[in-house]
Amino acid sequence: MTSEYNAAQRVLHKLKQNVGEFDLMESTQDSTVVQGAIAQDLQTLSKRISEYRILGRQESNERKRTTMLDRATHMADDHEQLKRRTDKITQRRATRTIHTDERNELFQRTQMGRTQMDTTIAMDAQDEEAFWGRSEQLLDGYIEQGMSSLQNLREQKGILQSAHRRVLNVDDTLGLSRGVIKMINRRTTQDKILLGGGMAVTCILIYFIVHYFG
After folding, report:
1. Which of 42, 47, 94, 124 has the most beta carbons within 10 angstroms of its beta carbon?
2. CB–CB of 3/61 below 8 Å?
C-alpha cells in the first residue's frame, strides 16, 4: 500500500513543479512542452488516485482503510486545484497572446498609415513642384508675348512716323504752308457759321409769312 501512495506522491510533486514553472514561463514554445507534460501528469495522478482509493476500500483494517481514503481525498483535492490553476494559466496566456497580436496588428496598421501619409506628402510635393514649373512656363510665355507685342508697337510707331513725314513732304511739294491750311480751316468754319445763320433767318421768315399770311 505504501508503494502505491509514494508513487502517487512522486507524480504529485512533479506536477506541482511543472505547474509552477508553467506559470513563470514567457516562451510560448517552452510553455507548450511543459503544458503537455502537465496534462500527462494530471492524467497519471488521477489514475493512481483511483487505484489507491480502490485499495483503500479493500483494506480490511478499518484504521488503515480510513487513512488511505483520507489520503486519496487529499490527493484528489490537490489534483483538482492543480488542474484549475493550469486552466487559469492557460486562459491568461491565451488572453495575453490575443492582446499582443492585436497590439502588433495595430502597430503594423499605424506604420502602414504613416507610410501612406509619407507617400501622399511626397506626391503632393511633386505635384506642387510640377505646378510651379508649369506656372513658370506660362509666365515665360506671357512675357514673350508681351515683348513681341511691344516690338510690334514700336515697328508700327516707326511706320506712322514715316508716313507723317511723307505727308509733310507732300504738303511742302504742293506749296501749302501750315498758315494757309489754318486760314482755310478758319474760312471753312466761318462759312459754316454764315450758312447756319442764313438757314436760321430763312426759317424764321418762313414761319412769320406762314403765320401771318397763311
Report:
1. 42
2. no
Strands (DSSP E) found in 24-78: none
Cell of 150: 511691344
Instruction: Choose from 3-12, 116-125, 147-156, 175-184 the range with maximum mean pLDDT.
Output: 3-12
Instruction: Specify the amino acid at residue 139.
Output: L
> Which string of DSSP letters, residue by residue, matches 94-162?
HHHHHHHHHHHHHHHHHHHHHHHHHHHHHHHHHHHHHHHHHHHHHHHHHHHHHHHHHHHHHHHHHHHHH
Closest CA to 69 of 85, 81, 79, 56: 56
Model confidence, pTM: 0.45
Alpha carbon distance 197, 191 (integer Å): 10
